[in-house]
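queue> pop job 88
queue> type: inverse folding (structure -> sequence)
queue> payload:
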């Protein structure tokens, strides 16, 4: 019952109550879990049996329209991130890795500069966008509908090794597709950006200047699908002289950034979640909050700054450790 009893946004009087709600969902029935869920995906990591309970939750949320998202917002979001009818191919070397800048490449443009990225070939745009964000909108059907299109584009582009800048992107290829029996292109290998960063730093370790910085790490929701990636954060921090503070709301007990809460009509809960999270960072003497997800940074960044902490995407800290300026 860990998937429900450990949830930080739902309360159950006892295990039996949680079991009743879980049984309802297993039987395809409506449950209060579906509407109270904040789509943080933590239940997937809490489950000791790797049963991926959120897959069932999101499927039923769509069936019963449990999140009750404004239809206009839902429709515009679905349309906005749709792939094109025909992919525009570019010339690449299939024997070298390709950075996927994602459909949000403009938001992350500044984070993809400097020596870490300047020699990487890349693809970007909606034709290579994973669409996992629709888990937050209870539209798993959109992800499944677009998955074959995105994978076919990868095949047509001839990409064999793709460096994924976001947890969502890597999670799509490394977790979502395999557990949904969606076949990846032959010979295709996804690589998480943290794996790439660590290897680059090791190769240039003699150039690293320790940052001597205490940081609070903000895990993204999609990192719950790929918890093994979290160890790369520690490895990178150790290499660049950064301390990841031990705090209440980190690792398995991490809190969602709260960015989606307003869309789910849970504004008050979102404010409390963000305040609890940021106060926890301050209580443990963090000097900065560090992210993988640009939307987490967008959601928490200004509030973090008002409390006197700095904001960084982890790759930016790597650039600083290599002696680069972020200006």
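queue> result:
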């Amino acid at each position: 019952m860990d998937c429900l009893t450990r949830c930080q946004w739902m309360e159950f009087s006892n295990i039996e109550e949680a079991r009743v709600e879980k049984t309802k969902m297993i039987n395809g029935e409506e449950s209060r879990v579906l509407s109270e869920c904040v789509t943080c995906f933590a239940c997937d990591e809490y489950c000791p049996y790797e049963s991926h309970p959120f897959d069932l939750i999101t499927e039923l949320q769509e069936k019963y329209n449990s999140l009750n998202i404004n239809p206009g917002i839902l429709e515009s979001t679905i349309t906005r991130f749709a792939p094109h009818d025909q992919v525009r191919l570019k010339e690449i070397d299939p024997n070298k890795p390709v950075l996927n800048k994602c459909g949000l490449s403009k938001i992350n443009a500044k984070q993809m500069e400097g020596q870490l990225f300047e020699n990487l070939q890349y693809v970007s745009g909606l034709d290579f966008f994973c669409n996992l964000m629709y888990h937050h909108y209870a539209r798993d059907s959109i992800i499944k509908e677009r998955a074959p299109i995105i994978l076919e584009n990868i095949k047509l582009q001839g990409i064999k090794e793709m460096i994924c800048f976001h947890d969502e992107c890597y999670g799509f290829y490394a977790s979502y597709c395999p557990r949904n029996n969606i076949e990846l292109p032959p010979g295709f290998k996804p690589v998480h950006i943290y794996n790439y960063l660590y290897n680059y730093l090791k190769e240039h370790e003699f150039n690293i200047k320790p940052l001597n910085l205490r940081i609070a790490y903000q895990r993204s929701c999609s990192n719950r699908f790929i918890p093994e990636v979290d160890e790369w954060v520690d490895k990178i921090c150790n290499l660049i002289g950064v301390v990841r503070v031990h705090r209440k709301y980190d690792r398995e007990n991490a809190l969602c950034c709260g960015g989606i809460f307003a869309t789910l009509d849970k504004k008050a809960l979102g404010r409390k979640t963000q305040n609890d999270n940021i106060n926890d960072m301050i209580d443990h003497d963090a000097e900065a909050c560090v992210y993988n997800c640009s939307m987490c940074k967008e959601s928490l960044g200004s509030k973090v700054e008002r409390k006197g902490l700095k904001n960084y995407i982890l790759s930016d800290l790597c650039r600083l450790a290599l002696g680069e300026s972020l200006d």
